[in-house]
Amino acid sequence: MSNDPAVEIRGLVKRYGTKTAVDGLDLTVPRARVTAVLGPNGAGKTTTVETCEGYVRPDAGTVRVLGLDAAADAEALRPRIGVMLQSGGVYSGARAVEMLRHVARLHAHPLDVDTLVERLGLGGCGRTPYRRLSGGQQQRLALALAVVGRPELVFLDEPTAGLDPQARRATWDLVRELRSDGVTVVLTTHHMDEAEQLSDEVAIMDAGRVIAHGSPEELCRGGAENTLRFTGRPSLDLASLLKALPDGTQAAELTPGAYRVTGEVDPQLLATVASWCAQHGVLPSSLSVERHTLEDVFLELTGKELRA
Ligand SMILES: Nc1ncnc2c1ncn2[C@@H]1O[C@H](COP(=O)(O)OP(=O)(O)OP(=O)(O)O)[C@@H](O)[C@H]1O
């Protein structure tokens, strides 16, 4: 398998009239990994993904997918990529599982349809026309259609939006399995836990650009400070505690006996606080480290809540 990235986007610009949906975006997606694209409403996620899928023509920039040009080589790419659109993109009269079998037959090495149907809980809707399926069933069918051809690269646009917890978990399991089979997965999501649970890399978009990119751990480590809290007797000598801690660390007594230390909270800082407590005869009745979540990082970078 090639070591080239699965997707390489440079300087992508897409305008709709006077609206610039994507504004000079750069993004590299490694192969055989799950990359989550996060961003507030209107950030340009769908436009970016649809450009990669060959459905949207860029106004400027280059979009290489599996080493080919996403627009010029769209025909050659189609059998190699799987696409799950937000709006299904399925003929409404088609019968669910028949359609899946039909799509499977178009591919040289499809997944086993019966297994896929069972895993995604579609067993009961074999002959049901697409338009009569529930929203969640339509969504799961769209996912099945995207992956049944065993593509090298899969784009999933909000794959679990509106799914119940069980269907959500089945979707996550399937994504993990695709990844372990060497498939590259690019997904957009509004669910931070989904990005945290599933992705190797996260790209945070805002106003048509990628404003942060890294593993969830890298993103949570950078920028945002972490917090250590402990409770002990009231009115401890915080000036003395601060002397023991690195410059830039802050400490406060929020309510009598409830202390908060903020800064670069690493194992060394934890050890220093514990040792200071020991020297001052303090046995904290609680001590906890609060790591910043992706949600905190997202809010800090974009100033917006992730969810619509
Ligand atoms: N076909 C179109 N015609 C006109 N404007 C469009 C079109 N498609 C997208 N836009 C605009 O481009 C911007 C980016 O839209 P896009 O759907 O790519 O964002 P998104 O990050 O996927 O948003 P959401 O999270 O709400 O799905 C938005 O302001 C949107 O209104």
Automatic annotation (TrEMBL):
<comment type="similarity">
    <text>Belongs to the ABC transporter superfamily. Drug exporter-1 (DrugE1) (TC 3.A.1.105) family.</text>
</comment>
<dbReference type="InterPro" id="IPR027417">
    <property type="entry name" value="P-loop_NTPase"/>
</dbReference>
<keyword id="KW-0472">Membrane</keyword>
<dbReference type="Pfam" id="PF00005">
    <property type="entry name" value="ABC_tran"/>
</dbReference>
<keyword id="KW-0813">Transport</keyword>
<dbReference type="InterPro" id="IPR050763">
    <property type="entry name" value="ABC_transporter_ATP-binding"/>
</dbReference>
<keyword id="KW-1003">Cell membrane</keyword>
<dbReference type="InterPro" id="IPR003439">
    <property type="entry name" value="ABC_transporter-like_ATP-bd"/>
</dbReference>
<keyword id="KW-1278">Translocase</keyword>
<feature type="domain" description="ABC transporter">
    <location>
        <begin position="7"/>
        <end position="232"/>
    </location>
</feature>
<keyword id="KW-0378">Hydrolase</keyword>
<dbReference type="GO" id="GO:0016887">
    <property type="term" value="F:ATP hydrolysis activity"/>
</dbReference>
<dbReference type="GO" id="GO:0005886">
    <property type="term" value="C:plasma membrane"/>
</dbReference>
<dbReference type="InterPro" id="IPR017871">
    <property type="entry name" value="ABC_transporter-like_CS"/>
</dbReference>
<dbReference type="GO" id="GO:0005524">
    <property type="term" value="F:ATP binding"/>
</dbReference>
<protein>
    <recommendedName>
        <fullName>ABC-type xenobiotic transporter</fullName>
        <ecNumber>7.6.2.2</ecNumber>
    </recommendedName>
</protein>
<dbReference type="GO" id="GO:0008559">
    <property type="term" value="F:ABC-type xenobiotic transporter activity"/>
</dbReference>
<dbReference type="InterPro" id="IPR003593">
    <property type="entry name" value="AAA+_ATPase"/>
</dbReference>
<keyword id="KW-0046">Antibiotic resistance</keyword>
<keyword id="KW-0547">Nucleotide-binding</keyword>
<dbReference type="GO" id="GO:0046677">
    <property type="term" value="P:response to antibiotic"/>
</dbReference>
<keyword id="KW-0067">ATP-binding</keyword>
